[in-house]
């Protein structure tokens, strides 16, 4: 079932969450351990992130450097199939521009269709550690709207190899939105312009980057509606869990903490203190969003579900 169909059929705010594939070498039970505690809240879909290859340079005996591709996490497609089989819940794989050319993208989508996966979140993806800026794969997409357009073309039965007849796909396409703007955008207006291009290319719904100030989300939705973006907009929340998060999240995700939250975080001396504040703030945020009638609240668990479980128990 498509994400938009779940939203349309719902009588109240839905619950969903995102997980990371386990690190390479970990068994699938590691994945289930992060999902099992959240199933009591009846998630309608579970997002699974995709992590592209990184590269390291290893010195050979002759003194030359050899470029070696390294994947730290197993494939998203197989994990989605496992989730759907075990829990009978829709899985939403992330599909990114980075590391894929158009042919590889098409092949991945064909695999997803074969497995009965009819949702996908289309993202540009981050640059790899060895690149200061995002670099597209040769023959690949530079921007998420281009990736969304390719998926939309397949939904209309248009494949890269036109001489090979295949049935149209039927993917529900999600796109990312940034209530505090994408860090590469000149300003929020510019970012909204690019978001609208994603919708015009075929995105059926938007799920946002994490934020900690609900007013920024409400303002973002209003700005989207003002420029003609009418698709559902799902807020994404991330509970704070550790002292490292206090400085890491604003720096890495380019977002701000509200003053009220930052004052509480300054008092924290241990990870447990931060986790307590994160749960309390997450409950407060979630209740206000639900009261405002958002279609769904999407939680970023990072495959550690304890805080999300505590929040959901008070909200759903």
Describe the overall structure:
The chain contains 11 helices and 10 strands. With 316 residues, it is α/β, with parallel strands linked by helices. The protein has a single domain (3-315), classed as TIM Barrel (Alpha-Beta Barrel), CATH 3.20.20.220. It has an 8-stranded parallel barrel with strand order 1-2-5-6-7-8-9-10, surrounded by 6 helices. α4 packs across α5 (144-155), α5 runs parallel beside α6 and α10 (271-291) runs parallel beside α11. The longest helix has 21 residues, at 271-291. Mean pLDDT is 90; it is low at 69-74.
Q: What can be said about this structure in brief?
A:
The chain is α/β, with parallel strands linked by helices and 316 residues long.
Whole-number mean pLDDT = 90
Just name the CATH architecture: Alpha-Beta Barrel
Please write the CATH class name: Alpha Beta
Q: Work out the helicity level.
A: 40-55%
Q: Write out the strand line-up for the largest beta sheet, numbering strands in chain order.
A: 1-2-5-6-7-8-9-10
SSE succession: HEHEEEHEHEHEHEHEHHHEH
State the main characteristics.
316 residues, alpha/beta, TIM Barrel, 8-stranded parallel β-barrel, two-stranded antiparallel ribbon, 11 helices, 41% helix
């Amino acid at each position: 079932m498509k994400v938009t169909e779940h939203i349309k059929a719902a009588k109240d705010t839905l619950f969903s969450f995102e997980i990371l594939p386990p690190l390479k070498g970990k068994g699938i039970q590691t994945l289930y351990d992060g999902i099992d505690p959240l199933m009591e809240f009846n998630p309608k879909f579970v997002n699974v992130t995709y992590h592209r290859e990184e590269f390291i340079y290893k010195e050979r005996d002759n003194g030359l450097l050899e470029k070696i591709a390294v994947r730290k996490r197993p494939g998203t497609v197989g994990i989605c199939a496992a989730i759907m089989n075990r829990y009978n819940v829709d899985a939403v794989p992330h599909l990114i521009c980075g590391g894929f050319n158009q042919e590889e993208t098409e092949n991945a989508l064909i695999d997803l269709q074969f497995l009965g996966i009819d949702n996908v979140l289309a993202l540009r993806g981050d640059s790899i550690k060895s690149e200061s800026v995002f670099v597209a794969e040769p023959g690949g997409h530079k921007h998420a709207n281009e990736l969304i357009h390719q998926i939309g073309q397949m939904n209309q039965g248009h494949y890269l190899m036109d001489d090979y007849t295949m049935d149209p796909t039927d993917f529900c396409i999600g796109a990312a939105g940034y209530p505090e703007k994408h860090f590469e955008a000149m300003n929020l207006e510019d970012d909204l312009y690019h978001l609208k291009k994603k919708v015009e290319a075929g995105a059926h719904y938007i799920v946002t980057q994490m934020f900690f100030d609900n007013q920024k989300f409400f303002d973002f939705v209003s700005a989207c509606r003002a420029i003609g973006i009418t698709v559902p907009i799902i807020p994404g929340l991330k509970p704070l869990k550790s002292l490292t998060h206090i400085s890491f999240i604003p720096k890495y995700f380019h977002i701000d903490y509200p003053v009220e939250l930052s004052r509480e975080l300054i008092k924290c001396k241990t990870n447990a203190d931060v986790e307590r504040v994160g749960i309390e703030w997450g409950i407060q945020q979630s209740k206000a969003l639900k009261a405002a009638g958002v279609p769904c609240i999407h939680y970023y668990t990072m495959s550690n579900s304890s805080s999300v479980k505590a929040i959901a128990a008070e909200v759903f």
